[in-house]
Specification:
Elements: H1 2-23, E1 29-30, E2 35-36, H2 45-50, H3 52-63, H4 68-82, E3 91-94, E4 97-100, H5 107-124, E5 130-135, H6 145-161, E6 166-168, H7 192-198, E7 214-221, H8 224-229, E8 236-242, E9 250-253, E10 258-260, E11 285-289, E12 296-301, H9 303-308, E13 318-322, H10 332-335, E14 343-349, H11 350-353
Parallel strand pairs: 5-6, 5-14, 12-13, 12-14
Antiparallel strand pairs: 1-2, 3-4, 7-8, 9-10, 9-11, 11-13
Helix pairs in contact: 5-6
Length: about 350
């Protein structure tokens, strides 16, 4: 009798989920995971026979499941509390920091990456002072020495392949506390020591004094790892540093397709990713003009650069920030005219190196 009741209950649950999935609108993104969700694949007989269509449909069904976040949380709680797993959704906690595993790049991928940036230097900056630094993932500072060994190997491969670009090693300058608890990114208020170290490597860069900056706070920030963890986490403090010279600068953000004068877009603090407060988030090309200075700097980077660049504004007349995930390198010259006098800094995180195929 009990087996029959369980069977009926299970079938009712399945029917409920099926009906809910049919009436629930298809979502394009997951707010909690900060990623696009699988859409209904286009049917073709060839892909059906090959099995490709059913694999893609399975991904679609899982991504579009009703009450998906609730089931994700239940799964994570079971793995964490019942099965006592250290890893949950590829994440683990150490010293109250969320850290994530990632696929380390191969030597061949690093060779291709260095060839890519050397190609940019040769095409646009053959006479410029050019540098590269690798931003360590915060797992590098964990007690799991695998990640330190992995990043040490990546550094070695990069340095072996470089011919005309100087490598700047910043791993010893940072530590785990320089990163957010719930996010992959570093904390802007902790980057003064990094800028001061970079100033010893780049001729045009100067040291900076934190006392001359104004600190602003947002106390309800949860980073991307907080959503991916799928279990409750406490929001943390996000700080952003302001300077008196910001009132006189001009910012051209080509993603926004209009002139912008704000270094920090505070409305982003209340959106799906509060880290986008820095320079309004990802953009193919941003130029910052400071009429009080003359020196110029070009940075090729990812989202980490958007929180570092504001600290450099008071000392440069023009900073050009380029993200070639969105702007193919062949078209850079169509949007920017270089003088040959700029310092050039390539600054990529370990996570980008592991997905360098995203660089266009």
């Amino acid at each position: 009798m009990m087996k029959k009741i369980y069977a009926i209950g299970f079938n009712v649950l399945l029917a409920f989920i099926l009906v809910a999935q049919l009436v629930t609108p298809v979502a394009s993104i997951s707010q909690s995971e900060r990623r696009p969700l699988q859409q209904l694949p286009k049917f073709s007989l060839e892909e059906l026979v090959d099995g490709i269509y059913m694999k893609e449909f399975e991904k679609y069904a899982l991504d579009q499941m009703p009450f998906r976040d609730m089931f994700r949380g239940l799964k994570a709680w079971t793995e964490r509390r019942i099965f006592l797993k250290k890893l949950v959704n590829g994440l683990w906690i150490e010293d109250d920091y969320l850290l994530k595993t990632y696929d380390a790049p191969t030597e061949q991928e690093i060779v291709a990456f260095v060839k890519y940036i050397e190609g940019i230097r040769e095409q646009y900056f053959s006479e410029n002072a050019t540098y590269i630094t690798m931003i360590p993932d915060k797992s590098y500072y964990s007690s799991d020495k695998y990640w330190a060994k992995t990043e040490t190997q990546i550094k070695q491969w990069i340095q072996e392949q470089l011919t005309e670009i100087a490598y700047i090693d910043i791993h010893s300058i940072l530590e785990l506390s320089d990163y957010y608890f719930t996010d992959t990114h570093w904390k802007q208020e902790n980057l003064f020591k990094l800028v001061n170290y970079l100033a010893t490597q780049l001729d045009t860069m100067e040291t900076i004094n934190k006392e001359k900056w104004i600190e602003k706070e947002f106390d309800n920030y949860t980073g991307v790892y907080g959503g991916q963890w799928a279990l409750p986490v406490e929001p943390e403090m996000l700080k952003y540093m302001s300077h008196e010279c910001f009132d006189n600068i001009r910012i051209i953000n080509y993603q926004e397709q209009e002139l912008m004068g704000q270094v920090y877009d505070e409305e982003k603090l209340f959106g799906w990713d509060g880290y986008e407060v820095f320079l309004s988030g990802g953009s193919p090309l941003i130029q910052i003009h400071n009429p009080e200075k003359d020196k110029e700097l070009v940075i090729f980077g990812d989202s980490f650069s958007s929180s570092l660049v504001p600290l450099l504004i008071p000392q440069y007349g023009k900073i050009t920030l380029i993200d070639t995930r969105y702007l193919p390198k062949e078209y850079i010259g169509d949007y920017v005219e270089f003088t040959g006098e700029e310092d050039v800094l390539f600054m990529y995180s370990s996570l980008i190196l592991s997905n360098s195929q995203t660089l266009r």
